[in-house]
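Task 17 of the worksheet. Students: predict the tertiary structure of the chain below and write it out as structure tokens. Keep your answer in the requested format; marks are given for formatting as well as content.
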Amino acid sequence: MIVQDKKILVTGATGMVGSHLVKMLTQKGYSVKATYRTAHPEIAGVDWVQADLLDVIALEEALQNMEVVFHCAAQVSFDPSNANSLYKNNVEGTANIVNASLNAGIQQFIYVSSVAAIGGGEGERITEEAKWNPEEGHNDYSKTKHAAEMEVRRGELEGLDVYIVNPSIIVGNGDWGKGSTELFKKIYNGFPYYTDGIHGFVDVLDVVTVMVHFMENPGQNLKGQRFILNGSNISYKNLFDLIAKGFSVPKPSKKVTPLMAGIVWRLSYLKGKLTGKPSMLTRNSAKIAQSDIQYDNTKILNAIPSFHFQQIQQSITRICAELREKYRLS
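Model answer:
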């Protein structure tokens, strides 16, 4: 394996995107420094450093002698009670890492934003040019990811070379007790419901592949742009059926109507409050699950002609196999 000489820092390396990114980087021969808050896995080739995004001094120290920053860290929540922590972690945290990168003379700053930070809505194929309307009823997560992206843009105006990816819902081998990977756990455990809503989904391996490409090809002049990363626009029913097939379990068979969705999210939200375990079902997530929201991936495919998104069927089959092995499922 060729040892690469770029000096790289990855934030959020214990999350799904960050962990897949550091594995890809180390497999390609790069030495990586990665931040963590409380605990971290052992990955060969990774130098772990404890640094919270809200700890400016720790960030400054972590960035000493670095050349490239992959900013993957973010809080994901659709619970209105987490509005303050979302702002601190996603907006203030991003402002801190941008400022620290400027002070450290970072050469490339590659940021994981989200389609949630882009405008547009139902009935259109959403592109990178969709206008953000602050008057629309955006949830707190969307607002903070949009504001965080504006912090990255501020850094760009102050001299930082930035690259922005806006993934749709990312699927991959993550912690299946939270985030999008919890969908896999629910289907495996016999979740019986589905909706006819449509959304965009992307394989985590595609996300990190594009990010590494940006780092390795600065001469392609892709800096200063945002790119939607969306592998497939697919209905939740079809997605759930693919997951069920991947686990060889029954497919969800009960269609959720808007009225049912309103009842279910309220009951789920109340259960979460009583048990202390946040529910992935909220008013907003229930609304999204009923909506037809589709994303256009033309820009990234034109920018990197050699890149192709993985087929969603193949991604789900692989992820189910990885989760089966990881959690020793029957």
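Marker's comment: The chain has a mean pLDDT of 92. The longest strand covers residues 162-167.
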